[in-house]
Amino acid sequence: MFVLLPPSETKRSGGGFASLDIDSLSFPALNRRRRTVVRALKTLAKDEDATVRALKLGRTQLAEVHRNATLVTSPTTPVIDRYTGVLYDALAADTLSTDARAFAGEHLLVHSALLGPVGGLDLVPAYRLSHDSRLPELSLKKHWAGDVSLVLEKVGGLLLDLRSEGYVALGAAAGHPQRFFLRVVTEGTEGQTRALNHFNKKSKGEFTRALLENGQDFGTVEDLLAWAATAGLTLRPGAASELELVVTGH
User: Fold this and answer.
1) Which of 14, 84, 158, 231 is the Cys-Cys partner for 10 at CB 3.0 to 4.6 Å?
2) What is the rounded CA–CA span in Å between residue 133 and residue 140?
3) Average pLDDT in the 113-118 region?
4) Is the pTM of this model over 0.90?
């Protein structure tokens, strides 16, 4: 089983490990494309005004330009410790048990716009690049979509896709035989279902944390659904190749 998360625009600075080593990342078939994006982002960072426009930065976010300019020399930290924001605050990687972190290293993936899908404990620098960023002469969607789809479709076992649709566009896994896209929904008093927006991130983080702490490598979606029922989670089949995580109070 693999859980595939979106990244976050916000990231912690610093890190306790050496600078970026692309050859150490998961999915080495993507390394050539990773190097291309890294070079493009470094080149863009030489022009502050162009970077502000391309990455849609505010004038108070100019430190992000420096992050990109130094992304190949700055220290790295594990993926699950790098990202912040609603989803990753709910995941609370720094409070995971030792076993849960080890499980994340084997079964958690995060889809970065800079590096493509990476493993949960892969070492990455701080950077700024989103799925909808516009690099000069480089369309992230065209650059990533084909090769990312190929590597994701080859991932073995159950694949739970918790990405936002913007990151799915950078590489769908529609050809994966056991890929299920997770939607977070809530039900009204009369049983009507509606999707959540902001609160879906928190729910995805809490759900991922529960999976990591549980530490079971579910072989089928039926096994996953059976566990969820015992864990106090309302998880059910949705549309074709989709699951619905039903939450209350939003």
Assistant:
1) 84
2) 8
3) 98
4) yes
